[in-house]
Amino acid sequence: MNSQLTIVKVGGKIIEEPDSLNTLLKDFSRIAGYKMLIHGGGRMATELAEKLGVESKMADGRRITDEKTLKIVTMVYAGLVNKEIVVQLQASGVDAVGLTGADMNLIASLKRPVKEIDYGFVGDIKTVNSRVLSDLLSQGFVPVLAPLTHDGNGNLLNTNADSIAAETAAALAYDFNVRLIYCFEKNGVLRNENDEKSVIPTLDRELYQQYKSEGVIKDGMIPKLDNAFRARAAGVQEIVITSAAGLNIGGGTYIR
Amino acid sequence: MNSQLTIVKVGGKIIEEPDSLNTLLKDFSRIAGYKMLIHGGGRMATELAEKLGVESKMADGRRITDEKTLKIVTMVYAGLVNKEIVVQLQASGVDAVGLTGADMNLIASLKRPVKEIDYGFVGDIKTVNSRVLSDLLSQGFVPVLAPLTHDGNGNLLNTNADSIAAETAAALAYDFNVRLIYCFEKNGVLRNENDEKSVIPTLDRELYQQYKSEGVIKDGMIPKLDNAFRARAAGVQEIVITSAAGLNIGGGTYIR
After folding, report:
1. What is the ipTM of this complex?
2. Which of A16, A201, B119, B233 matches a 20 to 30 Å C-alpha distance to B180?
3. Is residue B90 classed as helix, strand or coil in its secondary structure?
4. d(CA B50, CA B90)
């Protein structure tokens, strides 16, 4: 039987507020077995861009990444956020290693082709180097991945952290029994977005289609759930969408 | 016989100018055998600090690192500079991995005690995890180290890149036949700082003391050479102080 691997994706306010990040990392450090963390860092990049007078442009919730913006997200994601997580985990006895997809050629991606929108230096994942990740894990390291990949031609590419979580989970599902946990600002996928108690406990493809057609599930939840169902189809054993506290107390929406 | 390991330290203008960095990385990618790169990034941090309205304070050529400055150097060193180097090396077929001393617990340091000057979040190296570096090298990876270490209690510490180069070279001298090359803005240690042709070809401790007492060697060269002699005493086989071009064409000052 394969060993258990827990992959936690964390983003949004959890990353931005030192106290909530600290609590999450403490909970993460207590997870037994192999583990890996993938983080975003969105609004902190927006804040730095503002201070530097670089305009943040978004399209469908994705950041349009020109050359200046790429430098900003590289500083914030690979520098500030990634190393803050690594140094805190090390202090909790977790042998963390902070990496982008360029390091060790972990994640190669394709610059998104220009159609209606030119997203700039944004990458869609092509391959995940699961062998190297698997080696790091079996050597006792805990990879902490920043949402940047590369094209192999000398360009870093800004890459959605949910997609990195889904694709790495899928790639590692051959070697491990993978549990993928998306921690975000709500308690799970909600039936009513204003009621934190309306968590949908389990969601399969059929119910997902139904909720989408009814407009119960919409906006930013759709790409997140598409990623989750793709990982599920690729053999990821358990997928949960939950709050930061969910890492400790359980709960959230299970993807079947 | 131990395998050859080349450690290149690069800083100053070489890092700041895209063309010179590019040339250096191309030369570095052609070095045969095991290799490792250690970089600085000083003035780029000063520039970002200026843009963000954070005052840069220096004492004896070292940056005083308060909390805001630590965030800036983390963004610039571990983010911008480190990942630019990694992504370019990957494009040249070098399987680079960008790391700080916090990653994999590679370099633990002590926050410098406050005497006449409070340097803030500045670290003096305590231990180098040579086993992990050695494993990375033997697995075919090329470590690219940013000048940040950690105290094991959750703090990153700004650490002089020359010292990181000397200490890692010394720690790896048990497992490898180490060649340490400091690339900087001049052709080597100069007899006359205004004459690039006045390179001192070899320097032993005796001659170093003599040149120091005569005022021929002074200022920023002194900590650089102290580091180099310390590494030499610790068993590093070959130490050269040279220009970026020296990596390709040879020359420079050899430390005996």
Report:
1. 0.96
2. B119
3. helix
4. 31
Tokens 């390091």 belong to A103
Cβ atoms of B148 and B80 within 8 Å: the answer is no
Phi first, then psi, for residue B116 (nearest 5°) are -70, -35
Q: How far apart are CA A128 and CA A231, in angstroms?
A: 13
> Would you state the structure tokens that stand for residue A171, as one six-digit string?
């790639």
Residues of A in contact with B126 (CB under 8 A): none
Instruction: Please choose, from the candidates B192, B81, B234, the residue with its C-alpha nearest in 3D space to the C-alpha of residue A79.
Output: B81
Q: What does the pLDDT look like over B158-213, one tens digit per residue? A: 999 999 999 999 999 999 999 999 999 999 999 998 999 999 999 999 999 999 99
Residue B23 has pLDDT above 70, yes or no: yes
Q: Any chain B CB within 8 A of the CB of A134?
A: no
Residues 6 or more apart in contact with residue A232 via CB below 8 angstroms:
A239, A255, A256
Please state the domain extents for chain A: 3-255
What is the DSSP code (8-state) at residue B83? Answer: H
Q: Does B115 touch chain A (CB under 8 A)?
A: no
Fold of B3-255: Carbamate kinase (3.40.1160)
What confidence category does residue A103 fall into, taking pLDDT thresholds of 50, 70 and 90? very high
Nearest by Cα to B100 from B137, B65, B148, B136: B148
Q: What is the 3-state secondary structure (H, E, C) of B140-165?
A: CCEEEECCEEECCCCCEEECCHHHHH
What is the three-state SS of chain A? CCEEEEEEEECCHHHHCHHHHHHHHHHHHCCCCEEEEEECCHHHHHHHHHHCCCCCEEECCEEEECHHHHHHHHHHHHHHHHHHHHHHHHHCCCCEEEECCCHHHCEEEEECCCCCCCCECEEEEEEECHHHHHHHHHCCCEEEECCEEECCCCCEEECCHHHHHHHHHHHHCCCEEEEEEEEECCCCCECCCCCCCCECCEECHHHHHHHHHHCCCCCCHHHHHHHHHHHHHCCCCEEEEEECCHHHHCCCEEEC
- Quick check: A103 and B103 CB within 8 A? no
Confidence class of residue A220 from pLDDT cuts 50, 70 and 90? confident
What is the per-residue pLDDT for A59? 82
- Residue A34 has what pLDDT? 98
Show residues of chain B in contact with A152, CB under 8 Å. 90-91
Task: Check CB contact of A58 with chain B, cutoff 8 Å.
Answer: no
